[in-house]
C-alpha cells in the first residue's frame, strides 16, 4: 500500500515539469516515467555508493515496463564532476542510441545529477533528462531548476549549461541509507529556504528537525516545502538574472571554502560549506549594520544543534590565508565588473541581493574570522 | 577608403544580432566590436593556418580600442573538434577572467567557430561570443545560427549546444588566402541555398560563379544572399524542429561520407561531402519519382564545373561498403523512432523534408551508386 506521492510543478511554459515526492518512489519510478515519456531507451548514470542499493530495483522496473536501459557507474565524490568523467558518460549515452523521446536518468546525489544533466544537455544539443535524486541535498536543491555542470581547476561549476529535467522523482525513503553527515549537509539547504524568505518555516524546523531526520511525514513535508520554494524562484527567474541569486545565500563563502579544501569531501562537503557560509553571511550582515547580531546567533545555534559546522575553524586541516579565500571569491560567478555580489540579510528570513559589496570589507571580515 | 559593410540582421528577439559582410573587416573588427559590446576582456581562439595571417591585426586592433585580449592557437583541421581541444579552450577562457560583458572570439573556419562557440556556450553556462569567420563555408553557414559543437567517435557534431553569437564579422578579403579547394568546398554551401528554395540564385551562380571566386562585388553579393537565407531560416526555426532541417540538404549523405573517411581532410572536406551529398539527394529524389532526372544532371553539371566532386568514386582511397554508410546514416541526428528523415526535392530549388524515407530504398540506392 503506497500513498500517492506529493507533486510540485515547476512552471516553465512548454518546459514545465513535475517533481514527485514520497516514499517508495524508486519502486514505482518506471511506471511514473512510462506515464509521462514515450521513449523506449534510457541510459542510467549512477555512482558506486548508490548502485548497490538502488540500481537493480530501478533497472528491473524499467525492464518491466518495456524500457531498454543501459547503466554506467561512476566513482562517488565531487571529483567526478570533471571532463574526465563527462566524456565517457556522453559516449555511454550515444552508445545507447538515445533518440528524441528517450531519456537520460541520473540516479544519485548532486554530483551525479549535475554531471548527468550536463551530459544530457550537450548530447545531440539536448536530450530528455530525468532526475532521481537520492541525497537530501539533491532532492531539495540540485535536482530542481536546470543548473548542470562540472568543476574546473579555476573553480566550482564553472562549466555547464541550463538544462531542465522532464521529471524529478524524490523517494524520501532512500534518505535512510544516507550517512548522517550527508543528511545534515542537505539539511543546510533546507534551512536555507527558511532563511531566504520563510521565517515561519525556519521556526518550524527549529521545533521539528528531529522528526525530519527520523523520516516519515515531517521529512516529506520539509522536502516538499523546499522543492516548492526552489520551484517558485526558478519559475520567476530561470536564468538567474535577479531573484534566483537569493538561492546562493551562504554559497559565495561556501564555494570559496570548498575551493580552499580542494573539494576534498573528507574535509568539507558542499552543504557543510553552505552551513558555514550562511553563518558568515549573517555575521557579515550584522557587521555591515544590516541585521541584528541576534539573528546570526540564532542561525548559528540551530545549525550547531543539528550537528552542522558553523565556523571555519571546524574544518579539519589548515585553511589558506584570508587573501587566498578572497581570491576564490573574486573568481566565483557572481562578479560584475570587479564588484562583489553577495546575498546578505536584513533579519530572519529577509535575505536580499547586495551587488556592490566592497571587497575590502569582506577581506577584513575574513581576516577577523580566520586569522592567519 | 573602406566602403561600409553590408549588414544582415538575425532576428531572434532579445538575442538578435548583426552579421557584417564586406572587405577589410578584420582591420575594423575592434571598432565594430567596441561599438556593440561593453566588455574590456576577450579571448581569441584561432588555428595555426589563420594565426600567422590575421591574428596580429586583430590583436593590435583590440589593444588599440583598450580591450585586453589573450589568444590560443589550435591545430587546424576537423580533428580539433574534440574534447581534447575543448578542455584547454575552456581553461583559456576561464584563465582570461572573462566577465558578463566580455566575449570569446572565434577567428577561423567552421572548426574554430564550432569548437569556440561550444566553449563559450558552456563556460559559466554561457558567455558572449563573436564569430570572425575566415573560410567561405564559415561565412555563409557555420558562423550563423548558433549551432556549436564537437565530434564524437559515434559521429559528427553529436555533442554541443545552441549558443547564438552576439556579432558576426565576415571579411570577404580574407577568402583570398583560402586554398582553392577550401573555397570550392564553401561554395557548395552557397549553391545549397539556391537548391533549397532560390532557383533564381542558383541560375545567377551558374552565370557568375567565376566572379564570385575572383572576389569583389559578386563575392560580397553571394555571401550576403547566403547569410540572409540562413538568417531567415534560423529566425523562423531556431531549434531545428521544422524548416531549419532544410539546411541539411546534402548533409545526411555528406556526413556519412565524412564518417566513412574518418574525417580525414586530405580525402574529403565537409563541403565536398555536401557537394556529393546534394547530387545524391537529387538523384535519389528522381529515383523516388519526385523530381525529373534533368534537375539532378543540372546540379551535378554546375558543381562539376566549379571543380567540386560529385560522386563517391571521386573520393581517394577505399570507401566502406554501402551497409556501413547506411549505419552511419542511421546514427545521424535526423532519426525518429527508427525511420529516416531526408531532405529531398521536387525540382530545382524545391527542397522539402521527407520524414519517412524507407531505409531499404536508401540502401539499394547506395549499393547502386557504390557497388562493393
Ligand atoms: N545544480 C544545482 O542547482 C546544485 C545545487 C546545489 C548543489 N549542487 C551540487 O551538488 C553536489 C553535492 O550534492 P550531494 O551532496 O548530493 O553530493 P553527492 O552526489 O556526492 O552525494 C553525497 C554522498 O552520498 C552518497 N549517496 C547519495 N545518495 C545516497 C543514498 N540514498 N544512500 C547512501 N548514499 C548515498 C553519494 O554516493 C555520495 O558519496 C555538489 O557538486 C554541488 O555543487 C548543485
Ligand atoms: N555550426 C554550423 O551550423 C555548421 C554548419 C556547417 C558546417 N559546420 C562545420 O564547419 C566545419 C568546416 O568548416 P571549414 O570548412 O571552415 O573548416 P576549417 O575550419 O577546417 O577551415 C578549412 C581550412 O582552411 C583554413 N583557413 C580558414 N580560413 C582561412 C583563410 N582565410 N586563409 C587561409 N586558410 C584558412 C583552416 O585553417 C583549415 O585548414 C565542419 O566541422 C562542419 O561540421 C558547422
Ligand atoms: Zn547548494
Ligand atoms: Zn554544411
From TrEMBL, chains A, B:
Residues 73-184 form the 3-dehydroquinate synthase N-terminal domain. One of its GO terms (molecular function) is 3-dehydroquinate synthase activity. It holds the Pfam family DHQS_C. InterPro entries: Dehydroquinate_synthase, DHQ_synth_AroB, DHQ_synth_fam, DHQS/DOIS_N, DHQS_C. It is an enzyme of class 4 (lyase). Zn(2+) binds at residues 189, 251, 270. It is found in: Cytoplasm. Its cofactor is Co(2+); Zn(2+); NAD(+). Keywords: Amino-acid biosynthesis, Aromatic amino acid biosynthesis, Cobalt, Cytoplasm, Lyase, Metal-binding, NAD, Nucleotide-binding, Zinc. NAD(+) binds at residues 110-114, 134-135, 147, 156. Belongs to the sugar phosphate cyclases superfamily. Dehydroquinate synthase family. PANTHER family: 3-DEHYDROQUINATE SYNTHASE, 3-DEHYDROQUINATE SYNTHASE, CHLOROPLASTIC. Catalyzes the conversion of 3-deoxy-D-arabino-heptulosonate 7-phosphate (DAHP) to dehydroquinate (DHQ). This is 3-dehydroquinate synthase. It comes from Pararhizobium capsulatum DSM 1112. The lineage of its organism: Bacteria, Pseudomonadati, Pseudomonadota, Alphaproteobacteria, Hyphomicrobiales.
Amino acid at each position: 500500500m503506497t500513498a500517492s506521492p506529493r507533486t510540485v510543478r515547476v512552471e516553465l511554459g512548454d518546459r514545465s515539469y513535475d517533481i514527485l515526492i514520497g516514499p517508495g518512489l524508486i519502486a514505482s519510478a518506471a511506471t511514473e516515467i512510462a506515464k509521462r515519456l514515450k521513449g523506449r531507451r534510457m541510459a542510467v548514470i549512477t555512482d558506486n555508493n548508490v548502485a548497490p542499493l538502488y540500481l537493480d530495483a530501478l533497472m528491473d522496473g524499467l525492464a518491466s515496463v518495456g524500457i531498454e536501459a543501459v547503466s554506467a557507474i561512476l566513482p562517488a565524490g565531487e571529483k567526478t564532476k570533471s571532463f574526465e568523467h563527462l566524456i565517457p558518460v556522453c559516449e555511454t549515452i550515444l552508445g545507447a542510441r538515445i533518440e528524441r523521446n528517450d531519456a537520460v536518468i541520473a540516479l544519485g546525489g548532486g554530483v551525479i545529477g549535475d554531471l548527468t544533466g550536463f551530459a544530457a544537455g550537450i548530447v545531440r544539443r539536448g536530450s530528455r533528462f530525468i532526475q532521481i535524486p537520492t541525497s537530501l541535498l539533491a532532492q531539495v536543491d540540485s535536482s530542481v531548476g536546470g543548473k548542470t555542470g562540472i568543476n574546473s581547476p579555476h573553480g566550482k561549476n564553472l562549466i555547464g549549461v541550463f538544462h531542465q529535467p522532464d521529471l524529478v522523482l524524490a523517494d524520501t525513503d532512500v534518505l535512510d541509507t544516507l550517512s548522517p553527515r550527508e543528511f545534515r549537509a542537505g539539511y543546510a539547504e533546507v534551512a536555507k529556504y527558511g532563511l531566504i524568505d520563510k521565517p515561519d518555516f525556519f521556526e518550524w524546523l527549529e521545533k521539528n528537525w528531529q522528526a525530519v531526520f527520523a523520516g516519515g511525514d515531517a521529512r516529506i513535508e520539509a522536502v516538499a516545502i523546499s522543492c516548492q520554494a526552489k520551484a517558485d524562484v526558478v519559475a520567476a527567474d530561470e536564468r538567474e538574472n535577479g531573484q534566483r541569486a537569493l538561492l546562493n545565500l551562504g554559497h559565495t563563502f561556501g564555494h570559496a571554502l570548498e575551493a580552499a579544501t580542494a573539494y576534498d569531501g573528507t574535509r568539507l562537503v558542499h552543504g557543510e560549506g553552505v552551513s558555514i557560509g550562511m553563518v558568515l553571511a549573517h555575521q557579515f550582515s550584522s557587521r555591515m549594520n544590516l541585521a541584528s547580531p541576534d539573528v546570526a546567533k540564532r542561525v548559528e545555534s540551530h545549525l550547531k544543534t543539528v550537528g552542522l559546522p558553523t565556523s571555519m575553524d571546524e574544518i579539519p586541516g589548515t585553511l589558506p590565508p584570508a587573501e587566498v579565500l578572497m581570491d576564490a571569491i573574486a573568481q566565483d560567478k557572481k562578479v560584475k565588473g570587479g564588484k562583489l555580489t553577495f546575498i546578505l540579510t536584513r533579519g530572519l528570513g529577509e535575505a536580499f541581493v547586495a551587488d556592490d559589496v566592497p571587497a575590502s570589507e569582506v577581506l577584513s571580515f575574513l581576516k577577523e574570522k580566520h586569522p592567519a
